[in-house]
Design brief:
It is a single chain. α6 links the parallel β6 and β7. This protein has 2 domains: 135 residues, Rossmann fold (3-Layer(aba) Sandwich), CATH 3.40.50; 134 residues, Rossmann fold. It is elongated. It has 288 residues and is α/β, with parallel strands linked by helices. Strands 3-2-1-4-5-10-9-6-7-8 form a 10-stranded mixed β-sheet, with helices on both faces.
Length: 288
Amino acid sequence: MTAHVVVGVDGSPSSQAAAEWAAADAARRGCAVRLVHVCGPWIYDIPLQTPPGFRDSMAEYCQDVLDGAAALVRERAPKVPVETVFEAGKAVEVLRREAEDAVQLVLGSRGLGGFTGLLLGSVALALAGHVSRPVVVVRKAPKRVHDEIVAGFDGSSPAAVFEYAFEEAVRRKARLRAVHTWQEPVLGPYAAAYTPLFDDVFAAERHKAMETLAHWRERYPGVEVEETVVCGHPVAVICQASETADLVVVGARGLGGLGAAMLGSVSHGVLHHARCPVAVVRAGGERR
């Protein structure tokens, strides 16, 4: 099967932004875009007292959503092959299946359903970190290009995070800002006396970051890398860095997460508050 990027579309502004983002991504990768629209099964499977022609109208609306997204992709990337899929079912289940043989899955941050105050929709939350392929969540189409990729990492970050981030930097001819954070140790009321301890912790964390990145610098010598080692909460630090980035890359879960919780608190927080698209990468996912 031809390599392709899967995009979930539902006609919402963020899904249109996701389709636009995926068009540029597929053009850089030299692959196709598969647009997937999932229609709720109740329209077809559950007997309802509906006006004549209701189901046909719904089917027509769903097809219009797909056609509109396809037109947007072709406008943004005329040379990218586009395929559309219209299926009845549960959006999370269908998109999870579609992601299995895809390069990656791209989603809007939230769809048409739910509460308008939510920053992240249930579909994006259910899939990010829960499928083997990278999941990119897009809130809105970028207004400008910064030529910078931000990768947030700690001692538990899988190699797949660095591989994805460096490959993105190569494709975009962008610099990579590698952000490693650490938090102050909990000390007693006489913390001023522990200044050497803070210095030692900072030096150790900086050495850890340099050691982690050494292999990737050697593997990708053409990528400009900026190392940032900061004492602070990782979500706040990464989200601040996202203000001047084109993409933030994080692992599905970091230090302190439970093994069963495939989306860690840091990734969850970044997805909610980052100012640019966020790629969540799980360990063991294949790169294409």
